[in-house]
Amino acid sequence: MTGKRVAAVSIGWGALVLIVGTQVETVVIEAVGATGHHLEWISDVIAAIAVTALSYLWLHLISTRAALVDSTRARVVQDEQLRLAAEIQQTLLPEIPAETPGYHWAARMEAALQVGGDFYDFVRTDDGAVLLILGDVSGKGISAAMMQSSLTTSFRVHASMTRDPVAIASRMSEALFTQTGGQPNATAILARLDLLPRRITCVNAGHPAGLVKSGSGIRKLDAGGPPLGLLPGARYDFASIDLAPGDIGVLVTDGVTAALEGIPLVLSQALEDGHLSPSGTPKQDCDYLLGIAAAAPGPPGAGAWSDDRTVLTFRVSGD
Question: What is the DSSP letter of 127?
Answer without folding.
Answer: T
